[in-house]
Structures are given as structure tokens and as C-alpha cells.
Design a protein that fits this description.
alpha/beta, 6 helices, 5-stranded mixed beta sheet
Length: 191
């Protein structure tokens, strides 16, 4: 049996990482992790439908009441539903923007705290402020499935009758903020 020469080993050591990295790049492109992924391009089946049936209790340790379908169907006003989590970096980035929008435009803002530990959510809201009229605790993610959530953050515009008129997947910053504001303006004009 032939012993490998040192030059064979050097080629193998050099080529294996290059091959591996090439395979990783291919998989990253297939999985959409190439940096060009636009989560808002995933359509929502809920748009133009009534909000889904769900009933979430409040976050343990927080005075804000929970959230259910009835709260949105009987709202009588335009409402933003923000799906967020304390472990979500983009949620932190959009939080002050949503707070300003709710206060500055008189919008009702409610939240679904998605797959989060109650103590972490309370600490996060204590630190950043709580602009939500209601927050439902979705520790299991079941309500997120009903809403068709593909990740956090996501923000839905709900009309006065409880119909989903728009969904913004991803943080409400930059282009996401522009798209959400356009949807809010259109919903106000229609309502």
C-alpha cells in the first residue's frame, strides 16, 4: 500500500475546506440565507380575512390584559397587531418606532408575545416601555400558527371590523416602515 506523500496531504487539506465552503454557499442560497431574503415577499393567506380564532391570556407578571379574537373583531377602530419576543433583535429595533406610531397617530397597538418566557418579556417591556393596550402570551406558538407567523417580528393591520388588511413580515424599519405606513393610510382612507 502506497504511503501518502506530503504534497498529497497538502492538496487534500487545501481542497477539502474549499469544497466544504462551496457546498455551504450553495445550501445558503437554497435556504435563502444569502442576505437578500425578503420576508415580506411571503404572502399571507389572512389578508382580506377575519382575524383567526385565538384566545391568549396575559403575560404572567404584567398588568396588561391578554388578547383574543373578540378584542379585534369588536375593536371599532384600526388596530396594529405586533408579534414580538424579547429574544428577537429586530423586535428591539422596531419597538420605539411602533411606540411613536401608536402615540403620534392615535393607533391602537396590541401585541402577541411569541414563544417567550414571561419573566423575559416583562423585563424587556420594563426596559423599553410598554405601548401595548393588550398583550397575549403565546408561549407555545399555537396562536402564531393560526396567524400564519413565519418569524418575528410581524405586524398586522386590522380594520375596525376585524379584517386583516395588511401584514408586514420583518421589522418595521426602513422599507418595512414605509410599506406599513402606506397600508395604514390606505386602511384609514377605506374605513
Amino acid at each position: 500500500m502506497r504511503q501518502p506523500r506530503r504534497s498529497d496531504l497538502n492538496e487534500t487539506i487545501f481542497l477539502y475546506p474549499a469544497t466544504f465552503c462551496g457546498d455551504c454557499d450553495w445550501w445558503l442560497c437554497i435556504l435563502g440565507a444569502d442576505g437578500g431574503r425578503d420576508p415580506s415577499s411571503i404572502p399571507s393567506v389572512l389578508v382580506s380575512q377575519q382575524v383567526p380564532d385565538f384566545d391568549l391570556g396575559p403575560i404572567e407578571g404584567l398588568e396588561t390584559p391578554g388578547l383574543s379574537q373578540d378584542d379585534l373583531i369588536n375593536a371599532g377602530e384600526l388596530t396594529l397587531v405586533n408579534v414580538f419576543a424579547s429574544w428577537c433583535g429586530p423586535c428591539r429595533a422596531e419597538h420605539p418606532i411602533l411606540t411613536r406610531m401608536a402615540e403620534g397617530q392615535g393607533l391602537k397597538l396590541v401585541g402577541i408575545n411569541y414563544r417567550d418566557k414571561p419573566a423575559d418579556a416583562v423585563e424587556w417591556l420594563d426596559e423599553l416601555g410598554n405601548p401595548y393596550n393588550r398583550i397575549g402570551s403565546d408561549e407555545t406558538g399555537r396562536a402564531g400558527i393560526e396567524w400564519g407567523v413565519t418569524g418575528v417580528p410581524e405586524t398586522f393591520v386590522i380594520d375596525a371590523n376585524g379584517t386583516v388588511v395588511y401584514r408586514e413580515a420583518g421589522p418595521v424599519v426602513g422599507d418595512g416602515l414605509s410599506r406599513l405606513q402606506n397600508a395604514i393610510d390606505a386602511a384609514k382612507a377605506d374605513g
